[in-house]
From TrEMBL:
Residues 1-70 form the Phospholipid/glycerol acyltransferase domain. It is a multi-pass membrane protein. This is GPAT3 acyltransferase. Pathway: Lipid metabolism; Phospholipid metabolism; CDP-diacylglycerol biosynthesis; CDP-diacylglycerol from sn-glycerol 3-phosphate: step 1/3; Glycerolipid metabolism; triacylglycerol biosynthesis. It is found in: Endoplasmic reticulum membrane. The chain crosses the membrane at residues 87-107. InterPro entries: LPCAT1-like, Plipid/glycerol_acylTrfase. It comes from the Eukaryota.
Length: 165
């Protein structure tokens, strides 16, 4: 990674976030450089949904070239359920699978609208990716795989459910 132009950072460090934002802006401004590949979900899930995007990728400006990727599990499943399988079991399953097949769709470039903030822009890109991949849109991030759900979020969902009923 050191021989290429990777931008590494520690997500929990606020100063790293500012440095990454600066490096990305500089990279975008230099038209001689290749586009940056960003995975704004910050994690992988089970191929059925698109989770909340981290807004930092959408704050720096520039053109976004969305790509929808959906794995076909018929020959081998690329998804690692870390609560169910150890890393060694996962690696064994991948290495002994017939093939890892995925569909890749390159969507039209998208640019942030003037009246749009980073969160709305991220949600618009996420919706386009989900629609093309035939996946549902989730309003929460991948941290829920590893953390307990906040009580305030549960209460909010319960209130919405009560309004429906």
């Amino acid at each position: 990674m050191q021989t290429t132009q990777h931008v590494l950072f520690e997500r929990s460090e606020m100063k790293d976030r500012h440095l990454v934002r600066k490096k990305i802006r500089e990279h975008i401004a230099d038209k001689a450089k290749l586009p940056i590949l960003i995975f704004p979900e910050g994690t992988c899930i089970n191929n059925t949904s698109v989770m909340m995007f981290k807004k930092g990728s959408f704050e720096v400006g520039g053109t976004i070239h969305p790509v929808a990727i959906k794995y076909d599990p018929r020959f081998g499943d690329a998804f690692w359920n870390s609560t169910k399988y150890s890393m060694m079991t996962y690696v064994f399953n991948v290495m002994t699978s017939w093939a890892i097949v995925c569909n890749v769709w390159y969507l039209p470039p998208m640019v942030k609208k003037e009246e749009e903030d980073a969160v709305h822009f991220a949600n618009r890109v996420k919706a386009a990716i989900a629609a093309r991949g035939g996946m549902s849109v989730l309003p929460w991030d991948g941290g829920l795989k590893r953390k307990k759900v906040k009580e305030s979020f549960k209460e909010e969902q319960q209130k919405k459910y009560c309004q429906i009923v």
